[in-house]
Specification:
Elements (H helix, E strand, L loop, with lengths): L1 E2 L5 E13 L29 H4 L10 H13 L7 E2 L2 E4 L9 E4 L9 E6 L5 E13 L3 E3 L8 E3 L6 E7 L6 H18 L11 E13 L2 E4 L3 E3 L5 H21 L10 E6 L4 E7 L9 E2 L6 E2 L2 H8 L6 H11 L4 H8 L2 H12 L4 H19 L10 H12 L5 H13 L5 H7 L8 H14 L1 H9 L4 H15 L6 H13 L1
Helix pairs in contact: 3-4, 6-7, 8-9, 8-10, 10-11, 13-15, 13-16, 14-15, 15-16
């Protein structure tokens, strides 16, 4: 429930339609190469076409089995019902980037029925989002308008790409939740390996459907539903939803606070101006003249096939996040950072399995390793440092052979020589900690003598006692050039200061 400056109460309802290009080697109904497959991403315009894509007379479509299985995997991950019988329908409309003038889609019998997922929110809690359906269809081509006033160009490379459309119930109630849902769905698809989810290449497109229930003078006023089309970034999803909420509220006020006609509309998003722009009033299902495609047989899903596909569904990001928090005592922020990309999470688990403590490995991965990976634009495994090496480095720090600071220095050396031995690097750079009591006592005395003000503050100012101790510990480590055992330093300092 939200309120405006005039204290008008209203509820936001957002349902999402998400189009996911599936990364099969070939297209949905033909054997021509698929542009959403990594090897074909940079194909020249209009080269990924054949007579089926061009809609030439006499051609017949053939179902891509792997696309059906990938769609089922996503449905199972979203806890959707996978029916035993589904069929294909023709959705008739004219677009110049769809040569045959109809799209092969699914209408009343989709491949994936009702489902739900637990959406992780920023405060660490979860919210149930219901899935209405997920159906499989073919994508259209792409119109290019830039640089030409009198005509548009058509690129048909995208036409025929397997496209999974996922539709939620209007359970999202804030622009942030809409963004988080998009991010989570992308993680799921990347974990399953059904899509690269590269937004700049159009692998995922988001269309939030937004309207308000406004409560005024004992009545409920429902604003017309607006569909924001083809958003290709999470930032755009959040900004478009936020703008549309305020636009609908202002329009309701300007209309004399009356119930408005419930005709849906489609609006585009102008990212530069930060506004939505009316495109057309929304078509209804009857406008598309759906009818069963006569060229394609229905798909019958046996229990055996369903279970075979289910085995391909790996542990999902949400499940892995909860496990990390329970078994490794990680914070929600740490677990989310680790599970964001499946290869990163697998590297973490492999390092822990190799003997590294979960806490130390987490600190290494989310510290200097993540910083370096972001600078290079790669995932953590692509830095070239193996899980065994991370485990060995973590052990050196945990057993006190080297300090946490020295571990960072060793890691930086490993970036230049990923196959190096952490202990040998530490020895070569003189980072092995000294546990000799006599030598440490000498360093302690030097630090105390050089910092009389810190000693006085420790003894005579209770509020600064711990800060002074920390300062003196750092002074000892500096004098020892990082070789002193921090634990021994702390014990000897307190013993000497409290004497």
């Amino acid at each position: 429930m939200s309120a405006t400056a005039t204290d008008i109460q209203y509820k936001v309802l957002i349902g999402m339609e998400i189009h996911v290009q599936l990364a099969t080697k070939t297209k949905m109904f033909t054997s021509v190469a698929n542009g959403a497959y990594p090897d074909n991403a940079n194909a020249a315009p209009n080269t990924l076409v054949d007579p089926v894509i061009l809609g030439l007379p006499g051609v017949l479509p053939v179902i891509n089995k792997r696309a059906v299985e990938m769609a089922m995997m996503v449905g199972l991950a979203l806890n959707c019902v996978i029916p035993s019988f589904t069929k294909w329908d023709r959705k008739s409309y004219y677009y110049p980037d769809l040569p045959k003038n109809y799209q092969i889609s699914q209408y009343d019998l989709p491949l994936c029925g009702e489902g739900q997922i637990e959406l992780p929110l920023t405060d660490g809690s979860y919210k149930t989002i219901r899935i209405r359906r997920a159906h499989l269809e073919e994508d259209a081509g792409k119109l290019l308008h830039e640089g030409h006033e009198e005509f548009s160009q058509v690129d048909l490379n995208r036409a025929g790409t397997p496209l999974l459309e996922i539709v939620t119930e209007p359970d999202l109630t804030t622009p942030e939740e809409a963004r988080l849902f998009g991010e989570e769905l992308r993680r799921i698809c990347r974990y399953l390996g059904v899509s690269q989810g590269i937004m700049q290449q159009g692998h995922m497109r988001f269309e939030p459907n937004i309207n308000l229930h406004i409560f005024h003078n004992g009545q409920t006023f429902k604003t017309p539903i607006t569909e924001c089309k083809n958003l290709n970034s999470f930032r755009s999803v959040e900004r478009a939803c936020a703008y549309e909420i305020q636009r609908q509220l202002a329009e309701w006020h300007a209309g004399g606070q009356k119930q408005q006609p419930m005709r849906k509309s489609t609006r585009g998003w102008d990212d530069d101006k930060g506004v939505t722009v009316l495109q057309r009033e929304k078509e209804e299902a009857e406008d598309y003249r759906y009818f069963p495609d006569p060229d394609l047989v229905p798909v019958t899903v046996s229990e055996q096939w369903r279970e075979t596909v289910r085995k391909e569904v790996v542990e999902l990001p949400i499940q892995r996040r909860k496990r990390y928090e329970k078994h490794y005592a990680l914070t929600p922020k740490e677990s989310m950072a680790l599970i964001d990309e499946r290869p990163n999470a697998e590297l973490f688990e492999a390092a822990v399995a190799a003997g590294g403590s979960a806490r130390r490995v987490t600190n290494l991965l989310l510290g200097v390793a993540t910083k370096t990976a972001k600078e290079r634009g790669v995932l953590l495994p692509e830095l070239g440092i193996s899980a065994m090496t991370y485990a060995a480095l973590a052990k050196l720090a945990d057993d006190g052979t080297i300090s946490a600071t020295a571990a960072v220095t060793v890691f930086e050396e490993l970036l230049a020589n990923p196959s190096g031995d952490p202990k040998k690097i530490a020895e070569a750079k003189g980072l092995i900690q000294v546990r000799d009591v006599g030598a440490t006592e000498k360093w302690v005395e030097e630090a105390l003598a050089a910092n009389p003000n810190a000693v006085d503050s420790y003894k005579n100012n209770p509020k600064k006692k711990q800060a002074s101790l920390g300062f003196l510990r750092g002074a000892v480590m500096k004098i020892s050039q990082g070789k002193a055992d921090p634990k021994m330093v702390g014990e000897l300092l307190e013993k000497r200061l409290d004497a």
